[in-house]
Amino acid sequence: MTATNIELGPDGVRAGRPQTRFRLPETGASPYVQPSLDGQHFLVYEPVAGTARPDRMVVVQNWAAGLGK
């Protein structure tokens, strides 16, 4: 995953040099990547090699609260 600075000016749009933020797994298929609502994090789904792709994925938020204290 790469990012670049974009500058808007009177002469048009200028893109900066791309910078690698993190590497995605090389699975031979496109991984599922979903940015968070605030744009600060990404959820990347990577299937385990040799397994069938599931029909759905369950994400449990705030799971630590269910552990008890």
- Which spans have pLDDT < 50 for at least 5 consecutive residues? none
Tell me the helix content. Answer: under 10%
Instruction: Give the overall shape, derived from the CA principal axes.
Output: flat
Our estimate of the beta-strand percent is 25-35%
Largest sheet: 2 strands, antiparallel
Can you lay out the helices and strands and say which pair or pack?
Layout: E1 2-3, E2 6-9, E3 12-15, E4 19-20, E5 32-35, E6 42-45
How does this structure look, described?
The chain is mainly β and 69 residues long. It has one domain. It contains no helices and six strands. The strands form three sheets. A two-stranded antiparallel sheet has the order 1-4. Strand 5 and strand 6 form a beta hairpin. The radius of gyration is 18 Å and the shape is flat. The termini are far apart.
Key descriptive features of the protein:
mainly beta; 6 strands; two-stranded antiparallel ribbon; 69 residues
Short recap of the structure:
Helices cover 0% and strands 29% of the residues. It has 69 residues and is mainly beta.
